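Subject: Chitin-binding type-2 domain-containing protein

B.,
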Amino acid sequence: MIYSILFWRNNVSHKTSNGQPAASGGFSKQKNDKLVGVFSDVCGGVRTANIPLALALLSGQSTGGRKRPPTTTTAPRHRPTAVEDEESADQLESECPEPNGFFADASQCDKYYACTDNKITEKLCPDGMVFNDYSSQQEKCDLPLNIDCSQRPALQTPQPAEHCPRQNGYFAHENPNICDKFYYCVDGKFNAITCPGGLVYNEKSGICTWPDEAKKKGCSSQDVFNFRCPNVTSDIALQHPRYANPEDCQFFYVCVNGDTPRRNGCKMGQVFNEASGKCDWPRNVPECADWYKGVLTDEELYNLENPKPKETTKEKEAAAANRRKPSRPTTTRRTVVEDDE
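Prediction pasted inline below.
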């Protein structure tokens, strides 16, 4: 009889309604060891006085004078729905740092939260813009070029349009070999922009810069200008030597530190004189004497080379003073002659 009870209690697994082992129904290793000792004594018929002890251990009661807390049966726990789980997670993860203000999301650069009297609202910048977290009192979305998103790099799914990888922002030309053109997109509408001569679009700064500053593959100074600086000594290299553009008399190249070409140009009407290393008039550079033929007349070239003298400062001030003083009309003095009576 005792053997049957011990065997049943020690082998039947007690489980709760969710299938997990019950906290109060199992046995610890220490209690099992005690039961084995009692079982041996009883079955061996040596110490029958241990039978009550075995029954007490099986019933979960302590053998000492201190009573264990009664085992209470709890009702099945409420399992929250998926909606409740999501709402609870949002509430815990998106608490307002301050009662009022605008606060950046911890991982997504274009997401932020608006707090009004501790009530939080999740918001999203327009596609291509990111949240400017400079001040919690201002709700402002800005271009990624102006904001550091290295600590929260995630972004919303792009909404591309023609020439616009995202709805808003500055974007390089689709053809990687076209270096001086880019697009400015607003709400999915693009504006094509061309850099001034000698400059290329810099994707990091969003503006036109020298090719060696943009550091874009396929858009180096040598790639853009098809010109390479000649090898020179270190002394000449420190002087940033100049070289004529073999295809355009008005332009020339400055080799920064002797090895990085940058394209520069002379003003209208002048050409580069390689002998002097300066801009000069075409009549002084035989190979470029007719460069402006068909573009400027001889008279126009002469006026550019010999401009009319400008008025001096004193002459300008005197002319302005004369304009400010209105001419007063001359008055004639009338003489009244009285007739004698």
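Residues 127 and 157 are 8 Å apart (CA to CA).

T.
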